[in-house]
Amino acid sequence: MVYAKCWTLKKHFEGPPTRNDFELKEVELPALKNGEVLLEALFLSLDPYMRVAVKKSLKEGDKMMGSQVARVVESKNSAFPVGSIVVANSGWITHSISNGENLETLPAGWPDTLPISLALGTIGMTGLTAYFGLLHICDLKEGETVIVNAASGAVGSVVGQIAKIKGCKVVGSAGSDEKVANLKKLGFDVAFNYKTVESLEETLKKASPDGYDCYFDNVGGAFTNAVIPQMKKFGRIAICGAISTYNSEKPQQGIYIQYPFIYNELRMEGFIVSRWQGDVRQKGLKDLLKWVLEVILPQMFPTFQMMPWLQE
């Protein structure tokens, strides 16, 4: 008999989420059936999209959504023996039962020295969001200039690093001097604190006087109003999020976009990372793992040694 602790939605959010919006419950899990596995959560995801998705997808009393890295602790499924590490969409719960469908193992070649929590981050959903938004939606090309906001976040920081790997100039915005300093360590060409600049428009223009080829938007709101007029001819915009508006109860007011979109022939597309599945998703995870081991870790930790298998 297994009891799990589960965080549920006690009431829908009004403004920023608070501890009182959630309730921790204990639930009893049934015995395993043939083909099922018992999972023990090791890491849970907490992502900005939940602020909006909860309202659309959950009723009060429902288990909180989210992915987790989990270990198989009991198995009646030969594809997932005990001890297997998987990524599961089980929500905020300590133990859960799965029939094996939609469980994802770590990418082949994951070294023991690499934290498995990255399977929820850079080599997981947030990394794939940056990967597909930048390379598929924005169709990034070498030598272009990229602007990304919320650049110190789980998605934005990977956007900047992929853009640098692809030979592009990257401008990033963040909300504190400490975050800006970190962006510069990650290789951003220009990074600034949007909360302290006198003029966002002038700061963007100074960072790239010729404008921007690609805009990876995590924020929306006034920031996007400032960027759109500075997009280059045939610029591409990937709409990933709108975190500036998530906790607002007031309608947002944007700019009139027709002129810049028409005369600069811009393209803007919103996306959700779950669009990409199968082989293309696996290629994304393989690329991200390779870049973490070959580029990102050596850049952040100069004494890091390449894994021998990666040099073959």
Commentary on this structure:
Belongs to the NADP-dependent oxidoreductase L4BD family. GO terms for molecular function: 15-oxoprostaglandin 13-reductase [NAD(P)+] activity; 2-alkenal reductase [NAD(P)H] activity. Residues 18-307 form the Enoyl reductase (ER) domain. Strands 10-9-8-11-12-13 form a six-stranded parallel sheet, with helices on both faces. Mean pLDDT is 93; it is low at 303-312. It is built from eight helices and 13 strands. 27% of the residues lie in helices and 24% in strands. The chain has helices spanning 50-57, 125-137, 156-165, 177-185, 200-207, 221-227, 258-263, 278-300; strands at 2-9, 22-29, 37-44, 68-75, 85-88, 95-98, 104-105, 145-148, 169-174, 190-193, 212-217, 231-239, 267-270. The longest helix is centred in the last third of the chain and has 23 residues, at 278-300. The protein folds into two domains: 2-105, Quinone Oxidoreductase, Chain A, domain 1 (Alpha-Beta Complex), CATH 3.90.180.10; 125-273, Rossmann fold. Helix 2 crosses helix 3 and helix 2 packs across helix 8. It is of the alpha/beta class and 312 residues long. The relative contact order is 0.11. Helix 4 (177-185) links the parallel strand 9 and strand 10 (190-193).
What is this entry, summarized?
By secondary structure, the chain is an alpha/beta fold. The chain is built from 8 helices and 13 strands. Keywords: Acetylation, Cytoplasm, Fatty acid metabolism, Hydroxylation, Lipid metabolism, NADP, Oxidoreductase, Phosphoprotein, Prostaglandin metabolism.
